[in-house]
Design a protein that fits this description.
The complex is a heterodimer. The two termini of chain A are about 15 Å apart. Chain A has a single domain, classed as Four Helix Bundle (Hemerythrin (Met), subunit A). Chain A is built from 8 helices and no strands. By secondary structure, chain A is an all-alpha fold. The mean pLDDT of chain A is about 80. Chain B has 8 helices and no strands. The longest helix of chain B has about 30 residues. The chains are: A mainly alpha, B mainly alpha.
Chain lengths: ~230, ~220
């Protein structure tokens, strides 16, 4: 079987470096998290922070990249950007799901309930619903150009939920169970490095999954109408 | 601007001649009021007044969903939408015309539903009527702008009646948050709270501008 053009694409070629970066970061992250100081009040359960918050950052990244690619798609009409937008939204939903799953585990241990209608929690759930609707819209629209256009429009309108999410705690007047944002200095001493490496690991995982997903989309598009492009 | 007025006039005349959209919206929102009465533990009375602002906006959103779906499924008949899309004008203004028409039709339904709410919940709306109209107007502006945009999207997907609420409801949360809080503040002590109104103004502005800019890509005929 002759090698497919996808074998030489830049996306395919960056899969190995991105996978290696992810592996190195993940090992470093595990070591740092294991050595991170225990929280005085919460004990070991506080360490879920190093999973929960990086996942949230990756979800944000996924949704922002979706919006950017959507806007660029509408401007340039290049379907490869649309594939990138779709891939990024899917990966973003995966990370958003992880945030919503790890949150209750932490909440049960510290707040005492699995669920509370805390502002940030509520808005994260909202974000999850919005991007599920985005994926649903993609699968319910017929015609690839129309799907791409409709999804791009939704992807742009939806991104305004992200500032709402990030500033949720300030917007709702501080009546929140989530701690303040980072710039207010809410991390304890010795937690900075594991947190920063955790955020990087989360982003590396996002990038690797995005590339895998984009590669798959490129292969799928090639199977439908074989003509070479910059991502194949 | 003339495009906006032309579309607005066309939609309002169509609506006036048939009056089917407004009838359906009104009947539906009145039915919702009745459902509220049977689903509230104490019924819809003076005792359950505290939940009235939220319920009022649920009724408004349901009515709006019906109307918005209809406003574009009507255009699909005889390929009217293709005709509109072919006209050599800025499509942003077409969007504003459709939004204005939806806003006006929804406004009529809202006014009557609001009066019925005041009756059954024994609310004193007369004292705050003007400020309440302002809040409802602002809320519906956000609702209609993003609603018109995605109604145009939803009518051309499979399961179109299902698609619109799924797309719209999550995006409407900021609008509803501001609208319900402002309404609740008005009904409680007759004052217009600044925060919720600011939130309404900001979301209205964002949704109007974004929809105005991207509507071009939604009409692809």
């Amino acid at each position: 079987m002759p090698p497919s053009p996808a074998a030489t694409s830049w996306i395919r070629r960056s899969l190995v470096p991105s996978g290696l970066a992810l592996a190195v970061l993940a090992i470093l992250w595990i070591v740092l998290v294991a050595r991170a100081p225990l929280d005085g009040m919460q004990g070991v359960i506080q360490k879920i922070l190093y999973v929960h918050v990086p996942c949230a950052f990756s979800a944000y990244a996924g949704f922002i990249v979706t919006a950017l690619c959507s806007a660029l798609y509408l401007w340039s009409n290049d379907e490869r950007l649309d594939r990138l937008a779709a891939a990024s939204a899917e990966v973003g939903v995966v990370f958003c799901t992880l945030v919503i799953l790890t949150g209750p585990i932490w909440a049960k241990g510290t707040w005492g309930h699995w669920w509370a209608w805390d502002p940030r929690l509520t808005v994260t759930l909202l974000l999850w619903f919005i991007y599920l609707a985005y994926l649903l819209l993609r699968s319910f629209t017929e015609g690839s150009a129309r799907t791409a256009r409709f999804a791009a429009v939704y992807g742009i309108a939806a991104v305004f939920a992200i500032p709402l999410n990030y500033f949720a705690i300030e917007l709702f007047g501080g009546a929140a169970m989530h701690p303040d944002n980072l710039e207010r200095g809410s991390l304890g001493t010795g937690m900075g490095w594991p947190f920063a490496v955790g955020a990087l690991t989360g982003l590396a995982a996002y990038l690797h999954l995005l590339l895998l997903r984009a590669d798959l989309e490129a292969l799928r598009a090639e199977a439908v109408h074989p003509d070479p492009g910059w991502d194949r | 601007m003339s495009v906006l007025l032309a579309i607005l006039w066309k939609d309002l005349v169509t609506e006036w001649r048939s009056r089917d959209r407004i009838t359906a919206m009104l009947l539906f929102s009145l039915l919702v009021v009745m459902v509220f009465h049977f689903s509230l533990p104490g019924g819809a009375t003076r005792e359950t007044q505290a939940s009235a602002p939220g319920l009022l906006w649920i009724a408004y959103v349901f009515a709006a969903l019906l109307g918005l779906n209809r406003s574009f499924s009507l255009e699909l008949e005889n390929d009217a939408l293709a005709g509109i899309a072919l006209s050599p004008v800025d499509r942003g203004w077409i969007f504003l015309g459709k939004t204005a028409a939806n806003w006006a039709v929804l406004g009529v339904a809202q006014a009557i539903t609001g009066c019925v709410f005041a009756l059954v919940f024994d609310l004193d709306l007369a004292a705050v009527a003007f400020r309440l109209a302002l809040v409802v107007g602002l809320g519906s502006l956000g609702l209609c702008s993003i609603g018109t945009l995605f109604a145009a999207v939803a009518v051309r997907t499979r399961f179109r009646e299902v698609m619109l609420p799924l797309l719209l409801l999550p995006l409407l949360i900021p609008v509803l948050l501001g609208a319900v809080r402002a309404t609740a503040g008005l009904l409680e002590n007759g004052t217009l709270a600044g925060g919720p109104v600011q939130l309404l103004l900001v979301t209205d502005a964002i949704y109007l501008i974004v929809s105005f800019l991207v509507f071009d890509y939604v009409l692809d005929e």
